[in-house]
């Protein structure tokens, strides 16, 4: 479980191992720092002073732990969760854009109800979890598993709920499901087979701003669903963007061109899904694995 690096103090190990083991089994909630930030925390247990250092750009759940005992230092690395990484996502957008279908595509499941309807289908938030996805991440030369969590949400605006009801229910669900580990990305879902007119995305952008705060652009990517229809009409991604409305282009520019074309009917195929997940992982990596909405444990 623990990798001990210092040989000079190996004679102290027998007495330290129980302490180390118990520390490494502590709940993650005790560790409140974020990966990608050079912060450190101390924790005093008995006479020992412990410093926890996050391992930047690996995962927020891997840490270097240094223990000071009688003036000597022992360094250990948590291994508990290092062969696994989770990403937390939320889908947001107008009604019938394919939010629930996109959630299913990302999870490789049919957890969320998704169907054509003249009124909004999804009325409450629900969390879907993927199994262990292999073949996408390698860390320290070893294969790691990816776990994806997606929060499906009611549309904004909605045919039966007020904007306030949607906003409050999504806010509460984000705090409930992602308060401990934080949110990696909000996915603003738009239909690629419909033009985006001025002010049309402003409701969703406003909701995202209200939920995520001033850093929303760093934590938002656009999912352009119905890519199959755009393709049927003869558009490649490049020609589509050449003909896209200035409203869409300026939205994509404001989120630093984090966009993905998605054919929800096709992404049932594992390879298609892995391409989409790899793009999302790249966005998250470029944002230094930062998270939002994490409860402070101070
Ligand atoms: N052709 C095509 N149809 C899609 C795609 N994504 C979603 N759909 C269809 O669009 C319809 C609505 O999909 P949903 O996933 O229910 O959309 P939603 O945004 O969750 O809808 P609400 O919950 O009602 O707001 C369904 O009939 C889906 O099959 C896509 O990429 N291509
Ligand atoms: Mg839905």
UniProtKB/TrEMBL annotation:
GO terms for molecular function: GTP binding. Belongs to the TRAFAC class TrmE-Era-EngA-EngB-Septin-like GTPase superfamily. AIG1/Toc34/Toc159-like paraseptin GTPase family. IAN subfamily. Pfam families: AIG1. Gene3D superfamilies: P-loop containing nucleotide triphosphate hydrolases. It comes from the Eukaryota. It comes from Corvus moneduloides. The keyword GTP-binding applies. This is GTPase IMAP family member GIMD1. Keywords: GTP-binding, Nucleotide-binding. The gene is GIMD1. Residues 84-298 form the AIG1-type G domain. The keyword S-adenosyl-L-methionine does not apply.
